Amino acid sequence: VVLLIGEEDLIVQGEPVAKVADVMNLKGNDIPALREALKSQNDRVLRREAQEDIAGREVTIMGDKDIPYRLLKKVMATCTGSEYGQISLAVLQKSSDKLDEVNNLQASSR
After folding, report:
1. Tens-place pLDDT, residues 49-68
2. pTM for the whole thing?
3. Whole-number Cα distances in Å, 1 to 17, 40, 68, 77
4. Burial class (CB in 10 A: 0-12, 13-18, 19+), 75
């Protein structure tokens, strides 16, 4: 499962699930909308074996190097709380170019 932390949205498998500004205002580390999106991916995307095996559930978090630690911590905590056992981070070093492309693609698909 791929989770992109954009400038404005958290995007799971290409679908926006939460606004970054709203997430930053939440108390605690759980992001309910993200948790629901991740749990629905358990049923849709993951192999049947991985549905039963929490350690085999994988999520890749993508974003740029300027993501606030507090936001990343909330996202990672929600991933582990949603029973994903393997979390990978992919950092886009040229943040503005790549994320602008993704945000533009997302905006044009609305």
Report:
1. 555 666 678 899 999 888 99
2. 0.76
3. 14, 11, 22, 16
4. buried
